[in-house]
Amino acid sequence: MNISKLNSLGWSSFFYDQLTPIEIAATNKSIFLFRIIAIHRSRVVAVGEAGEVSIIALEEFQPISQFIAVGDWVIGEAAYEHYRVVRLLKSKNRVERLSKGSMQLIAANLDFLWIVTSANDEFNIKRLQRYLAMSHKFNIEPVIILTKLDLCKNPSVYLEQIDKLNVKRVHCISKPDLKSYEQLDQYYVSGNSIALVGSSGVGKSTIINVISNSNLPTKNIRESDDKGQHTTTHRELFYCRNNVAIIDTPGMRELHLVDAEVAVKKTFDDINTLISQCKFNDCSHSSEPGCAINKALKSGVITEKYYANYLKIMREDSFYKHQKTGSRAEKKIYRNIVKR
Asked: Are 98 and 258 in contact (CB under 8 A)?
């Protein structure tokens, strides 16, 4: 087992400790360690000590997209002219979202989540708050990257909104200014894994092209609205400088999380601090005396839109949580309540 080679792919003691003595002894003899870099309907593409290979998944891993994520580590064995997955190792973390009623895996085993947005009409502070809740839910450090500053007359409009999110890592870049990408050099540490998320056309593929000297398909900016045209159609992992794993993802306009109450409260920690200051523990924040939320809204400490987005995400989380456990009749009643 070439540990240094595996480490450069993102391997760590977290995964090694999951191997049995028999598996350790059999590695590179009858079984092999692979990291998933792409997922297709009937097979996955992975990379290991021997390079890039195509692997088929047994019936127990079907449909593949519901069991295996890009970035996962698997144990494979040689079978005739191909490899097949025999075991999926536990992930350090897994990013997922609710899509069309079922959970959709986005990526696994990440160190950073690059939340990409652009300085134009595509900028949406509510969406950024959801991405931050996602990063908090899965214990991944968030990084906000604001793109297309060269097309923006007044960047401060966007930066002031981002500043209120209290995110430690924020970077501003523009395609013509390649020097601006040097801000991202701090993340290129061997073994790091990074996923890019954001809406279609905000510049995720452009970022990957610049930092990896690759040539992912991108399209020109539409002059009518300064928006790029989305070209990434599936999740895929690339290795760029210093063997850093970069996962590109298709644009996501809808982002629903499940069981994310703690993460949402962390994202909106200012609101939860205010709630703790209310006079009554069971304050509904409507007309009770001594309500810190109402006081903050009236004084402008927090805005109506900001608070409304917090309530909306919390209601969604409560709704989807109830969907998982309630009876069909209860779900119908609760669905009507949530819509109010």
From this structure: yes
